[in-house]
Design brief:
Length: about 150
């Protein structure tokens, strides 16, 4: 806060700025990481979600709810793309990884874990745990505010 009012955003950026900045940087890092497989970040997130066990397409959407928008109301196009690669099988009751999908997930998961390590190398494991706890708490709080509005 300056003597005459709120902080100068050129000197102290607000929370939203840093969240967008970090997300953009992660997006660029992941784009480079996934380029060899011609994957996008969302492809990876959907593949990683399906790797948790057979899920319905609705459960994939529920898990990925933070990424759904009016322009992209479902993750089905990503599921279809993964199915076209032979990495997932979309059945009437569930979506599951194929053997080829499990192999791809293992390989890409190792690469993603290495990237995650590089991205968080500037904080201790304890600081990272605290950061995640605080972000989750803030997200839950903001959700209650948007639901009340």
């Amino acid at each position: 806060m300056t003597a005459s009012g709120p902080p100068d955003v050129r000197e102290q950026r607000p929370l939203g700025y840093w969240l967008r900045h970090i997300d953009g940087a992660i997006e660029r890092c992941m784009a480079r990481l996934f380029a060899a497989d011609a994957l996008r970040r969302r492809d990876w997130q959907v593949l990683n979600t399906v790797a948790c066990g057979p899920l319905t397409a609705a459960e994939v959407d529920e898990t990925m709810a933070a990424f759904l928008t009016a322009d992209e109301p479902t993750m089905r196009p990503y599921l279809d793309g993964l199915a076209a690669r032979g990495w997932v099988r979309i059945g009437p009751d569930a979506v599951a990884l194929t053997d080829e999908g499990r192999a791809a997930h293992r390989r890409i998961s190792a690469q993603a874990a290495a990237l995650r390590g590089r991205l968080t190398a500037c904080v201790t494991p304890e600081e990272f745990t605290t950061l995640m706890t605080l972000l989750q708490r803030l997200a839950a709080h903001v959700d209650t505010l948007t639901e009340a509005a």
